[in-house]
Amino acid sequence: MSSELDRMADELEKELWAGYSPIVIDHARDPRNVGRIPDADGFGSFTGPCGDNMEIWISVKDNRIQEATFWTDGCSTTIAAGSMITEMARGRSVTEALRITQQDVLQALGGLPEESMHCALLASNTLKEAIKDYLAYKREPWKRAYGKH
Ligand code: FES
């Protein structure tokens, strides 16, 4: 009986993920870097046209991103995109990370179906916000006291 249920669950799972790459499925099921960084050096929050929100925290040392984490209230694809972009940002210089585009995230995820492509854009826009925040505080550190990290 339970093997019949297992089989049905597998079938449903397959249907649910039809059209998604194994990389997307892996990151959606086992997202990396979830949560906030206390005392982050940069924080970004972005809401996409679909209404989903993503937040990204970064810690930076010597102009290099040491850690990047995320949170989202979005769908599984958005979770996969947040997981992937935080992995991609980690270890890069701030300038390199600022250049990560929607296209780069899509490529790293092994592509996304047309209707989910905006999830990768949400991730790249949120990372940009976090880096902009870091750069703004770097220029005017006194503003840190008013930050919302
Ligand atoms: Fe809105 Fe993924 S469905 S960002």
Uncertain residue segments: none
User: Sheet bearing the most strands, described?
Assistant: 3 strands, antiparallel
Please provide the count of β strands.
3
Strand order of the largest sheet: 1-2-3
Which architecture would the CATH scheme give at its second level? Alpha-Beta Complex
Global structural class? alpha+beta
The number of helical elements comes to 6
Strand content: 15-25%
What is the total number of structural domains?
A: 1
The gyration radius over C-alpha positions equals: 17 Å
> Which outline best applies?
elongated
Name the ligand types. FE2/S2 (inorganic) cluster
Mean pLDDT: 93
Looking at CATH, which topology would you report? Sufe protein. Chain: A
Which key terms come to mind for this protein?
149 residues, Sufe protein. Chain: A, alpha+beta, binds FE2/S2 (inorganic) cluster, three-stranded antiparallel sheet
In short:
This protein has one domain (22-146): Alpha-Beta Complex (Sufe protein. Chain: A), CATH 3.90.1010. The chain is 48% helix and 16% strand.
Describe the overall structure.
The protein has 149 residues and is α+β, with helices and mostly antiparallel strands. The protein has a single domain (22-146), classed as Sufe protein. Chain: A (Alpha-Beta Complex). The chain is built from six helices and three strands. The chain has helices at residues 2-16, 22-29, 76-89, 94-98, 102-108, 117-139, and strands spanning 42-47, 53-61, 64-72. A three-stranded antiparallel beta sheet has the order 1-2-3. The longest helix has 23 residues, at 117-139. The chain is elongated and about 60 Å long. The mean pLDDT is 93. The structure holds FE2/S2 (inorganic) cluster (FES). FE2/S2 (inorganic) cluster is lined by residues 48, 50, 52, 74-75, 77-78, 118-119, 122.
